């Protein structure tokens, strides 16, 4: 069969395919139109959105489009642009784009109307395009203007792509995305005013959102998000090698990354390599724990222990990086979200140095010049190993003295490489101060020099021996060496005369005698001493038992036999392990952590009730009734007020879906607080300090006590709102769609709700399960052990505790392990042949 001939795609098909790649959603259409207005030199931009009618419009006071320009768009709309005409001029562009495809794509996907007037024109001219065809051209009828500027209106967007509409976000979510996009432009163009309005289904205009022009990005940020996150800021204006970084970094932290804005040449940059570099610098510092609280500045060394459940703070910043246009390329995709740099290392180094300077200045990180890594210098000549004629009781060899340069000399100390010591056939590696992961630090007050382990943070005086008594031990000979290496006093018993003296007084109690055990002797493959190869093979044989590589299933826990409690910490039992592909020809001795097991039982008991109630709430149709909730709740009388930022209160006031998301988990707010008029939608002249109170009158009973202690309720609400803003938790309409896709009801369906559970609420449930579980040193009878094991077998995740740690560990196997083909993995011994050799007669 002959192949089909190659032909060109029809022109309408090509343009439609191209348009669907240029404009993918209603928020992106608004973004492209706003970028055109910014490139036109506008000082005031108005945006209107009607998501129900798939309609949007953007009006500006820019240069405008002439009548001839509109005619050109009507005859050949695609690739008509006023920004670049040659390849040589592309490297000098300072605009958002140059292709001239946005308007043409909008006309392919909907009905496009453009009305514009230039400064030299006395008339407002208009053109209407749909499906690539001109419907009307002439004097404007609807969008007449009294001054220069342009109005672009798109109606019935994606009318010819029904699938795109089905996958589109909800109207409220689309408005939030558009609002977020406008805010990002307002921060980097503070001299431009923006006005956004949202039209509801009934045609009423609501959610008016105004951002007046300001003198700086910091002032715009405070108008948008209040002063709660920008009360203490560090303003940045740094230049280096034709690069400039300006903006600010706040000393207050946020629970989400929603307040991180990075721009390159005034272009918003999506989360990518540059953001990850900044995030890595903040993560390696103490900013997450010691960032300023909303209530005020915090000490870097608080007197009270920080709660482990306290959420870590994320950085808040607005930074604009200016780079020569010929050194950056953002033309790889139509959305212009991907950036490539000509000198990427220089850009990254510039960002890192600026962020490090901020962290060091405010005490979130140590100065790098005071922490010098120890570099090893190889010895000038090979050094022979000393022969040890004798070994004393302490097991310590002759000490080597070394002279180190002081920190004040500002030079890196040269520490000679110390060869491993061979003592009785045992190599002592890691001896001496020359460790690659150690740093040297000198106290400026006392003048003492310390060696600090960069991994653990432990320190010791320079010249002293490390506390781990010789480092790693590796046996390197088959014959027996010294019985041990270490201090001689470790295993000595207390003398009788001291024992009798202490036993006479009850105030002095002798410590329990240490249980004798074999030390762990790992062997590194890079050690090439004598006999190392033999020891490695022996160690692999002893510790690499293939029979311990197995899997457990729920049925193993259900059929386990309890032996007894061990050391008041574990429950010893035997598993008749069936394994995957293994015959049931063995029994495994297993230790179960009694605390982890009971913690797993309790956490699933709490979470199941909470998640089942959540699923019932989102499946319920009709309006929300706060008094009827499938989650068991506790009504607070009087309602408990919590302090939030004005932006967070506005989000609760303006979004019914956000309030429904809280209600679905059993958290309800007082209607009076939401209807309070002190916090308005307008951000004009917000001098309230950025805070507002809201009352909570209903919380889930399972964690009610923890929510009411300290700031638990406030942190939960703020953390939940942060997850909603970042998109980690979709709106309740998305929950309902996901639940409706699953058919039938199963016992384990509650596990599906865990992916939507607020992170802080889940941490509180885990903490409650942990605090009330069986602890170590709690005595259990055999009957209690059996009941514990039975309850554990009924859980969904019996092999881990609430925090993800394993709840059991196998010790050894009894019997023979057979593989998939029934062949034993252990070599068989021919005892008959051995007996004939031993008794030849």
Structure report:
- With 841 residues, the protein is of the alpha+beta class.
- 29% of the residues lie in helices and 20% in strands.
- The protein contains 23 helices and 31 strands.
- About 17% of the residues have low confidence.
- InterPro entries: DNA_mismatch_repair_CS, DNA_mismatch_S5_2-like, HATPase_C_sf, MutL/Mlh/Pms-like, MutL_C, MutL_C_dimsub, MutL_C_sf, Ribosomal_Su5_D2-typ_SF.
List keywords for this structure.
841 residues; alpha+beta; Ribosomal Protein S5, domain 2; DNA damage; ATP hydrolysis activity
Question: What form results from the Cα inertia axes?
Answer: elongated
Number of helices: 23
Indicate the percent of residues in helices: 25-40%
Radius of gyration of CA atoms, rounded to a whole number: 36 Å
Q: How many strands in all?
A: 31
Strand order of the largest sheet: 5-4-3-6-2-1-7-8
Average pLDDT figure: 75
What are the SSEs and their pairings?
Blueprint (H helix, E strand, L loop, with lengths): L10 H12 L3 H14 L4 E7 L4 E6 L6 H9 L26 H8 L1 E7 L7 E6 L2 E7 L9 E7 L6 H5 L4 H18 L4 E7 L5 E7 L5 H9 L7 E8 L2 E8 L9 E5 L2 E2 L4 H11 L3 H4 L26 E6 L5 E2 L10 E2 L2 H18 L10 E2 L1 E3 L36 E3 L4 E3 L2 E4 L8 E5 L6 E5 L5 E3 L10 E4 L20 H8 L28 H12 L10 H5 L2 E6 L3 E6 L10 E8 H26 L13 E13 H9 L1 H9 L3 E2 L1 H4 L16 E10 L3 H4 L4 H15 L5 H10 L17 H13 L10 H12 L14 E8 L15 H8 L3
Parallel strand pairs: 1-7, 11-13, 17-18
Antiparallel strand pairs: 1-2, 2-6, 3-4, 3-6, 4-5, 7-8, 9-10, 10-13, 11-12, 14-15, 16-21, 19-20, 20-24, 21-22, 22-23, 25-26, 26-27, 27-31, 28-30, 29-30
Helix pairs in contact: 1-4, 2-6, 6-7, 8-10, 14-21, 14-22
GO biological process, one term: mismatch repair
Organism: Marasmius oreades (fairy-ring Marasmius)
Keywords: DNA damage
